[in-house]
Write a structure and sequence with these properties.
By secondary structure, the protein is of the alpha/beta class. The protein has helices at 13-21, 39-48, 65-75, 90-99, 112-126, 142-153, 189-197, 202-218, 246-268, 286-301, 312-326, 333-348, 353-372, 378-389, 393-417, 421-433, 441-447, 452-463, 467-484, 490-496, 502-513, 517-524, and strands at 4-9, 30-36, 53-57, 80-85, 103-106, 179-186, 222-228, 233-239, 272-276. The strands form two sheets. A five-stranded parallel sheet has the order 2-1-3-4-5, with helices on both faces. Helix 1 (13-21) links the parallel strand 1 (4-9) and strand 2 (30-36). The relative contact order is 0.05. Mean pLDDT is 77; it is low at 128-140, 302-307 and 526-536.
Length: 536
């Protein structure tokens, strides 16, 4: 097989090494001649070796990227040049293309799909007949993905039941159960478009934004990103079976939106607004999520006096399913957080007071359904509509949280009444003294005045687990709070939770959560850097 020579010209050795090592070049018919740390070094390599494709950094001492590219194209016109940069500097974009670059790529967008696209473009330029895209091996054209996914969201594609799947020809991430749709809109997009349209680079900037969003997405889970021409917005569809966990869903949604906003601001100096639809189950439900986002954006853009009612049916269905599960959690925090998020989302959408009243009525209907395990009557709901209209927004939120809190307390009391007095006392002792390393069955039994064997049998029968397992699970739960809320180091958290052996704590933590303490912090703590520099 014919091999093509690749040269990387970049004074950042760390990036060059990662770029060289993170793609199967030889499998695609490429080999590296070397890494030039300066323009002068690149000229020497080119003088002694044929180079088929050169990746050139824009910012280097002595000779900058456009100067290197211009010299290469003048002296070795057959060499294809690709400009690399950390920032979307508009002057560099123009200079690099004027110098003869085939493409201009942001370094943080260089995932495997982006490299594959560049190499396919190289093949099309130097040997179209043997291009991988001619054999169907390349990634789908981004425009094809955009056109198809937009038609799917807008309902212009007929779907065959719940088992609907995306065509394999799109070659995008397989979208399975639990789909989170997020819509991102660039602020003052018309002016943004005009800037790049005048430079004939509009398609480039749209592709760049999609690459930025996809790069952020792939740090969290799988999914697809595309641009919709109709409403001039970018859509991200995230899929993960872990989204059934409300805490993980809310964390991922909030962090993704924040990182998208920060990254677009950093690299393109562009402000944006993003919004997520309620979680949907399957691909055939994506249109419902799309309509919810359209309505939400429409409400946010309309004057207050023109606002209509909210989508009560959709909010009710999602809230009922979620709150039923939250009410079975070990504590009330999940329920409180979900309700607070509903009101926070409403504030972000600039709901009118009457719309907050409608939201409160929906959540009250959910409360009645959860409480009585049946659909509430219209009469039971209507009597509260006037009540909510007389309250301010904070009072509505506190009233709904209070209802669920009392229901949760009542359920917990009923559950505890089924446990013997000895088991209840043992649980209280564990919750008070979990930080004592010597806490165990043999130390707790004398405190409740029963034998070890009797307490062991009773505890396992009534709690569904042995007392040692309960102690470890409670300690790990406390450690999670210390790692995220108190931001303790892992070792301090293990000591404060009663583990006198760090290795044992590490093993127990991973067994219960499926993650190491550091992985848990990186996943759930917004303050931790994603480059791995967070506190151990």
């Amino acid at each position: 097989m014919m091999m093509y020579n690749v040269l990387v010209v970049d004074d950042d050795a760390l990036f060059a090494t990662a770029f060289i090592n993170n793609y199967p070049w030889e499998e695609q018919g490429f080999r590296f001649l070397g890494h030039a740390k300066s323009g002068a070094a690149a000229l020497w390599i080119l003088h002694h070796n044929p180079v088929d494709i050169a990746f050139v950094d824009m910012c280097m001492p002595e000779m900058n990227g456009p100067e290197v590219i211009s010299w290469i194209k003048k002296n070795y016109p057959a060499t294809v040049c690709v400009a690399l940069s950390n920032y979307d500097d508009f002057d560099f974009v123009k200079e690099s293309f004027r110098a003869g670059a085939m493409d201009y790529v942001l370094k943080h967008c260089l995932n495997r799909n982006e490299v594959k696209r560049i190499l396919d473009a190289f093949f099309q330029q130097v040997k179209p007949a043997q291009s991988p895209s001619a054999t169907g091996a390349s990634e789908a054209d981004p425009m094809s993905v955009s056109v198809y996914m937009t038609a799917l969201l807008e309902g212009r594609i007929v779907q065959d039941g719940d088992d609907y799947t995306l065509p394999d020809s799109l070659r995008i991430a397989r979208l399975s159960d639990n789909l989170l749709v997020i819509r991102t809109q660039i602020t003052n997009f018309k002016a943004f478009q005009k800037k790049y349209f005048e430079a004939s680079r509009l398609k480039y900037i749209l592709r760049t934004i999609c690459s930025i969003l996809l790069n952020v997405l792939e740090h969290h889970t799988k999914g697809v990103v595309f641009y919709s021409d109709g409403d001039e917005c970018f859509y991200s569809i995230l899929t993960d079976e872990r989204f059934s966990d409300l805490h993980f869903l809310n964390y991922t949604q909030e962090l993704y939106i924040r990182q998208v906003s920060a990254t677009l601001k950093m690299y393109l100096n562009a402000d944006c607004s993003s919004m997520a639809a309620p979680l949907v189950a399957k691909v055939c439900d994506l249109r419902r999520a799309y309509l919810h986002l359209c309505a939400a954006f429409d409400r946010a853009s309309r004057p207050v006096e023109q606002m209509r009612g909210i989508d009560s049916g959709m909010i009710y269905a999602h809230a009922l399913k979620t709150l039923e599960r939250c009410m079975n959690s070990p504590n009330f925090d999940d329920t409180r957080r979900y309700i607070a998020n509903q009101y926070e989302n409403a504030r972000r959408l600039q709901y009118h007071t009457s719309q907050f009243g409608q939201l409160s009525v929906v959540l009250y209907r959910v409360y009645l359904a959860v409480k009585d395990d049946s659909e509430p009557s219209e009469a039971a709901v209507k009597e509260y509509l006037t009540l909510f209209e007389s309250k301010n927004i904070r009072e509505m939120e506190e009233f709904i949280i209070g209802l669920f809190s009392r229901l949760y307390g009542s359920r917990k009391a009923d559950c505890q009444s089924e446990c013997s007095r000895y088991v209840q006392e043992a649980v209280k002792i564990i919750q008070r003294r979990y930080d004592t390393p010597s806490l165990s069955l043999s130390t707790i039994a004398p405190m409740v005045n029963v034998s070890d064997s009797y307490l062991s049998r009773s505890f396992k029968s009534e709690m569904g687990m042995g007392i040692s397992e309960y102690i470890n699970r409670y300690r790990v739960e406390r450690a999670q709070s210390m790692l995220i809320i108190d931001r303790m180091s892992v070792k301090d958290a293990s000591t404060r939770c009663g583990f006198d052996n760090y290795t044992y704590f590490f093993r127990i933590f991973k067994k219960i959560t499926g993650l190491t303490p550091k992985e848990f912090r990186e996943k759930y703590d917004l303050s931790v850097n994603k480059d791995g520099t967070g506190e151990n």
